[in-house]
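Trying the structure run again after the queue cleared.
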Amino acid sequence: METSTLLLTILTAGICLYYFVLSKLFHYKRLKIPHTRPIPLLGNMASLIFQRESAPHSLRNMYNQFCDAKYYCFYEFTTPTYIIRDPDLINMIAIKNFDSFCDRRNVVNEDIEPMAGRNLLGMRGDHWREMRKLLSPSFTSSKMKMMFELMCHCAKNFIDFLTIESGKTGKTYDMLDILSRYANDVVATCAFGINVDSFKYPNNDFFLLGKEVINFNSPRMLFAFLMHRNFPKIAKLFKLRMFSAKVDKFFKGVVTSTVKARDEQGIVRPDMIQLMMETRNKNHGATFDINEMTAQAFIFFSAGFETVTKTMCFMAHEITVNPDVQRKLREEIDDVLKVTNGKPTYEAINGMKYLDAVVNETLRFYPPSFSTDRICVKEFVLPPATPDSEPLTLKPGDNVWFPIYALHHDSKYYPEPEKFDPDRFLNGKVDNSVYIPFGIGPRLCIGNRFALMEAKIMLFHLLWHCDLELDIKTRNPLVFDKKTMVMMVEGGFWLKLRMRKSLIPVV
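Done. Tokens:
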């Protein structure tokens, strides 16, 4: 094809696409649905693509622009997405009319990446229902209690490392590094039944591959994510992978060897793999082969590694820059240690009200995901977005978002939203309908109890043994990274840790 012909073809295709977008835009204008005029092809993504704003702040700014609307239209490239601002409407969609919005978008193509593509997050319809029903017993209170000692053992390895490294003089750490080691060890033992000490052996395969899985800052990962999410046919054509084949091979090998060892030796552990093994030969509901087990264990690993690590980093940062919070939390920890004779129990840590408030406020301030989505599967009529607009009929395939970060930072629901204030969760004034760090409705994060316990155990042991101090490298306030689509900060989470002079002894 000659150059002139190729350019003419591209120009024609661009014009057609532009007018396709404009036709949708005119539709929203007629219905008087609030929106910001999109840029051809880029939609409302220009500030993100050109790294002028971080993703959380970009969406919050648009959220604030339409403060009188129940929802507004946002263009994710050429795809119109409806951002639901009104808490009552969020509840209507996510809970009361869940059957019309039961699916989510899967950003991993199962044909290209069978392991990552068959995860619970992206499953749809009856397949999701069966898998959710099967995996839910892994995260009951009784299972959490059984995993408590495993997590405490990982926390002890963490503290032993800090004791040797920091001592009384203290040492400055990038908290993302050391807390990701703890998170890695917790998930490895609780999900895969493998004891890993990433403090003694920082180059173990589990830890190194885990860092590769969560490296959303890499240009390659970001490009693959955006292509799969917005242009799936092109991504499939060029066989773009989110995760390397090496990752697939490693995790399949781990699950295969674990299942084989348990079958041969009669080993039973309170974890996800065990539950899936027990379901293999049942004739009802979902059944599992090694590929299915690997897919679910992998998403549990990646979510438990990445999101919990970041949450723990934000927690450590906030209690360091807010010394009154650190003091009050340490007093509560010391009280628990005295009551339990230096042997904290599952019930004791779960009963700590101020610890709970600190964790909840961290999740309000820095939710694991700045938004969550639903896909319409049955025609549904949204009420008018504003008093002078018309109702909107959603069709199967249409996307809606719930702007978690923006809701959590809305002064209408949270007085002084930019202030880190755990006390707001002690006075009973937080409205649960606008506190959704783990999502909402039946598709609420299945591992939220696991994540909360993992974070609480870490923070308990850390303040039991260490003072957290500011360092010259500490950035305050934190600045969200503009080069990624996840909630990451620029410059790292640098803090100085110093062993406490007086400790509540272990009896």
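The chain has one domain: 32-499. Worth checking whether this holds up in the mutant runs.
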